[in-house]
Amino acid sequence: KAGVTQTPRYLIKTRGQQVTLSCSPISGHRSVSWYQQTPGQGLQFLFEYFSETQRNKGNFPGRFSGRQFSNSRSEMNVSTLELGDSALYLCASSSRGLETQYFGPGTRLLVL
Amino acid sequence: AQSVTQLGSHVSVSEGALVLLRCNYSSSVPPYLFWYVQYPNQGLQLLLKYTSAATLVKGINGFEAEFKKSETSFHLTKPSAHMSDAAEYFCAAGSGNTGKLIFGQGTTLQVKP
Asked: Among B1, B15, B79, B112, which one is most buried in terms of CB atoms within 10 A?
């Protein structure tokens, strides 16, 4: 099976802009979780989607949002970008959630 | 709230030496526990996971971890380090039935020739 794919791999934006990141899970997986990785805060959970419904949400401001489509592909959106949003954004998929999560290569976002 | 603590942000060993990376979790109910490895500019790769079937869990690349409920620990070990083991290692815990993992801060493993 193909692994988790994320697009784009690298992104440069300026403050105030918005960005959309995409994640395609492993075929058959219905759960997609998103994480933000920064040197200072480490890996932090953003949210999880299961069967098109947000099932869990981390402690991030409302500027961070996501959605999941009927084919389980997921997108996350960050509006009004801030410098502190520069990070590696990882998505992970699993069949139902708490089983093994398989991670994609990540999207590295740089906000200038 | 559940938390995961990895003792030592940097660990340095010689090639061929024992690798020991420490992880403690805080939870009254034993959570699901995982060890992931991250190589530079890559995502996370699962090394092993604790599923409650056995307290000693064997993973890929010769790594294993032992779940000790009395110590709330899940330390990762490998008998003999290889240069290719140099990477960052993350311990993670999950609970309930949702896809939310709580990660430790990570331990960078350096392997010296």
From this structure: B15
